[in-house]
Every structure is written in structure tokens, then in C-alpha cells.
Amino acid sequence: MRRWLAGLSLIVAASPAMAQGPGGVRIGLTYAPGVKPGVLVALATGPMGDSASALIGRDLDFGDRVTVIVGSALAPATAQAKLPNYALLAKLGAAGLVQLELSLGRLRATVHDVGAQRVLDTLSVAVPGAGGTRAWRAAVHAAADEVERILTGTAGVARTRIAFVKGGRTWVVDSDGAFPEAVSDGSALSPAWRRDGGALTWSTLTNSGTRIQVKELGSGRLLGLVATPEGLNITPTFSADGSAIVYAHGRESGSDLWIAPVAGGDARRVTVGRGSDNTSPTVSPDGRRVAFTSGRAGRPDLYVADLDGTNTDALTDLGLDDDSYRSGPDWSGDGRAIAFGTRINGQFQVAVLSLRDRATRILTSEGKNEDPSWAPDGRHLVFTSNRTGHPELWVVDAESGRVRQLTRERGARLSAWSPRLPATP
Amino acid sequence: MPTSSTHRPLRTTLRAVGFLVATLAAACSKKPEIAPAPEAAPVAAAPAASATANPGTPAIDTAAERARRDAARVKARDDSVAAARMLASKTAAELRATLIGTVYFDYDRAELRDDTRAALDAKLLILQANPALRIRVQGHTDERGSDEYNLALGQRRAASIKRFFGDRGIDDRRIEVVSFGRERPAVSGEEDSARAKNRRAEFEILAGGEALAGPR
User: pLDDT at position B118, please?
Assistant: First the structure.
């Protein structure tokens, strides 16, 4: 085991596909399930080193897979210096050590397995621009995600952004709440990401109806979906390959899911709701299935169908009480679960349905909590909560239930978590 | 006895609308210049109304229930005759206020309540008397339920009003529908009284709203 890890330490950035090593040996710290290993993030050397350490420490903390111990002078900061005092680190409860060095526009990280008294892996990323700028923070977030992969076998989600609606406009904010940026005018609702993170789609509310728009984030190009120009056009989401939009369209007899090419062309109807409302589609990771909200049996509930409209099935046991209301499904990136809002005692709460055993877990209880959206790790969810007295975005770790407040915007809602984004914005 | 000249506009109106309410003659002989609002498919409308009143429970068609429905129908007709009579004497501004007056819905329902039907009857008479009039119906919901699903519910509310007018002979192209879901509440608050005011449809005049004429 030790020899094997030592051989690996020279690899600068192993691919995520190598989370399982040869023979099923797991890369990363060994630790008991359910116990978060302590990781000491040493203060980085170089200008803005403190900021980089703080950012990486916080990103690892938000990742909920390790317990972060920040900024001890006990560990030498660079890999070039003599080896860290592993025995002392172990006594302090650290199973892992992250050493950081910022110089000449690069951030170098050395990740140690304290128990094995070895370097697990190192990485080096370009950190452009002045400390604290958006590009600088993006690069440091990307480094933190890679450090988390080295430590745990699963990359973090710090280098992601979250789209949401506030005051009628679509905004995008970094995963840690930094750099909120408005990306739409007018009355936007229900933003959703393309799976490459390069575009958003949303519905825009006008005095004469709702329309679907698509915005390319690189070029800033905004285009409208014109396949169904009239009536209700809401809750858009991209198809898996990004070439089409699945959305709810209705005119004078309920609403159904439709699919239309982004590049233009005719829309095709997906669901046959016979006058009921069918909204809020979410496409499975393999692109073949769609889950959605439907009132076809009376109360709004969750259904799933093939994207050609066949094989429709209820996802949950139909709620028998009058208060039953399930809506806004979001399919996790690993395909295993669907998050949604469900009404309990008159209040919406965030719930997760496991597709393996159809078991439902309720993740929230304080205030009203709705419209969950999965992070690309299939573990964290962003949702809207009014627990502070105003609608704000919060993040919950579906495994531990730990929550953090993402926005302080008074009125943020309808959030959507991006895929992992490139280190350079 | 009414003269044939006073009967002709009434007959023309009825032919245009396309059907005759059985009890009309009695009303006509008293006030021939006023037409009650035509009642769309009365046979079909009654079960729909009772289904709305008791969602999920089968309608029990007892004699008492039939009598109650008949009484309600007679009352609705009398009300609409009275409404038409009242509208005939109104100014353009008053007619406009009647036309754009907000109507209300029950929770999570797009079916028309009795009071909503009565208000729509009056609007129908104004639409009939002003052929150039075009309106937009805006469907709204209260703040319960999801933001997204409520947009669909608002659309169904507006659409059910358009269907009410369409069933009574109003050209499809004269009524636009739009939903604002829970995005534009009339009043803020989460108490029942606020919610009742927000579950509504509003009416916007798109064209032909100048110098509205009353029914004659």
C-alpha cells in the first residue's frame, strides 16, 4: 500500500476516473464511514497566501467530506522544506495535510496522508490576476476541488456557480456567495444550465405571456425560442446534449411538456396531460427520461416518462390527504435521486427520492423550503428558504443535513446549480 | 303586448348566440328590451357546478338537489336580467368598470364560481354590445404552491374565462389570455383574506374600449 501510494505521489493531476485505483484500492485518506477526517490546511506562503489558504480551507469545509483545521504554524508551508511532523499532526487530529505555496502566478499544493506519513499527490495551477479578483478566486476554487479529490476520491464543487432569480432578473453567483452578477433584464423565472455550463435558459414574463430565452454566457448572445410563440412557455431545461429545450407550454387547455431545438424548428409535444398542468421538467443524466410535476390525478405530484412521451409512471405513492403537493423535481447528476418540494403541515420542505428503493427523505424543517437543485457532486442541494424572514438561497448537504446560507439578497429564489466549470472563467 | 319591432333585436341576438332558454318568454313579455345573458349548455353546466362545489364526491341527484339547482338557475337568470337592465342605464365609464372588474377563484381551482359567473355574465353583455372590443384576461394565484406550477394554474384560470365567453359566441380572437401565477399579487400577506383577493382574474382592454355602449 505504501509503495503504491509513493509511486502515485509524482502524478500531478490524476484524472477523476481514477478514484478507484488498481485492484479496487481507494485513493485518498482511509477513514471510517461517517467520520470526517481532520485535514490541516497550512497557511500558504507568498503574496495573498493567507487568502488562498482561507479560501481553500472554506471550500473544503463546504464540501462536508473533511473537518478543516486552518492555519497552524506547526506544519512547514512548502514541500521543499523538511518533512512535516506527522506524529504531532496526528495528535492534533489531522489525517491529512495540505501545504500551499503561491508564487509567480501559480498555486502549488502538496497533499499529505498523515497516517501513512506520505505525500498523496501534488498539483500546480495557474492563478491569474490580482488576489481576490474573480479569475483569481475561480482558479483557487478549482485547486480546492482538486485537493478534495486527492483527499477523498471525489472532486469538490467549489468551482461552480449558482443561477437564481431576484427582483425579476436572473443572477449568477459563485458557489461561496461571491460575485453576484445579473445576466438578464426583465422578468426572468426558472433559470437552468446547459450541461457544459456555457449557457442558461429561462422563462421571461411579459404582459402578453411567457417566453423561453437562451443566453450564451461566453458571447452574451441572447436568443428566443420561437417554436411556440404564444401562451404559457415556462420551466425550460436543456436536453442532455444541449441542442434542445424541454419546457411546459399551454394555451387554453392545461399545459404539457414540449421539446424544441434551440437552433430553431418545430416543437414536439412530450406529455399528454388532457387539460391538466404538466410543468418543471428535469432530464435524466442519460438524456432518455424526464421527470416532471403534473396535476393529472388532482393534486400536483411527480411523474416520469421517456422523452418521447411513452412509459409514463408516477414517481411517488399518490398523496391521499388534501394537503399533498409535490413539485419541482431535479434529477441528480449521478442519476440516483430526485430532489423536490413537498408540502408538510402546510409548508414546503425539501425532500429527496432515492430511485433505487423509492424511499423519500425530508431534508429540511425550519420555515418554508422549496425548489431544490443538485450540485454536480450529487450530494449538495441549493434551495430557497424563508427561515430568515425573506426568501434566500441555502445549501444543504444531503448526507449530513448541514446547511449554510448562500445569499443575503432578500428575495433570491428559483436557483439552479451549475456543472463543474473550467478553472479559467 | 310588445310590438314586433321591439321583439326583432332580441330574436336577432338570440339567433346569433345560437340557443333559447326555455323560460325566456316570460322574461321577454315583461321587459322585452332586455335579454338575459345566454346560459351555455345548461344541462352540462349543472353537473359541472355541483362537481366544483363538492370536488371528489359524486353528485347525488335527489329531488331536493334538482330543486335547488333549478332555483339557482332561475335566480341566476333573474340576476342577469337585472344586470342587463342596470347596464343599459350605465355610462361608458361605469361600463368600463364593470368590464374590467376583477373576478375570484377557489383555492387550487380554475372552475368558475357562481359569483364569478354572474360577473362574467355582465361582461359578456358588454362584449356583445361592443363588437370591436378586445380584452386580455390575466390569471393570478395566491402565494401557496410552487412559483412554477402556479403559472400553469393562472393560465388555466384565464383560459376558463375565455372558454366561458367562447361558449357564448364571443370570437376567439377577441380574448387573449396570460398568466402571472403568483408573481403579481393584488395584496400582500398570507392570511386567508389576502389569499382570497389574490386568487383572481383581471381584465385589460386591448382595443375598442373607447365610448363603450351598453346592451339595448
Answer: 94
Residue A62 in contact with residue A4, Cβ under 8 Å? no
What does the alpha-carbon distance between residue B26 and residue B22 come to, in Å, rounded to a whole number? 9
A341: nearest CB among B146, B155, B162: B146
| pLDDT digit string, tens, across residues B125-177 | 999 999 999 999 999 999 999 999 999 999 999 999 999 999 999 999 999 99
> Searching chain A, which residue's CA lies closest to the CA of residue B158?
A252
Q: Kindly state the cell numbers that stand for A334.
A: 449521478
Residue from A164, A234, A280, A343 to probe the interface with B (highest B Cβ count within 10 Å): A234
Taking the Cβ of residue A187 and every Cβ of chain B, the question of whether any pair is shorter than 8 Å is answered with: yes
Residues 189-248 on A with a CB inside 8 Å of B are 189-190, 205, 207-210, 231-232, 234-235, 248
The dihedral formed by the CA atoms of A295, A298, A304 and A308, expressed in degrees to the nearest 10: -60
pLDDT tens-digit readout, B184-213: 999 998 899 999 999 999 999 999 998 899
Q: What mean pLDDT is reported for chain A?
A: 89
Mark yes or no for CB contact A255/B155 under 8 Å: yes
By Cβ distance, the residue of A252, A278, A293 closest to B162 is A252
Residues with Cβ within 8 Å of A325's Cβ and at least 6 positions away in sequence, in order, are A299, A300, A319, A341, A342, A343, A348, B145, B146
- Chain B residues in contact with A278 by the CB 8 A cut-off are 152
| Assembly ipTM | 0.87
Instruction: Determine which of A3-12, A105-114, A401-410 has the lowest per-residue pLDDT on average.
Output: A3-12
Closest CA to A158 of A238, A70, A57, A68: A57
C-alpha cell at A324: 399533498
**So what's the pLDDT on residue B73?**
80
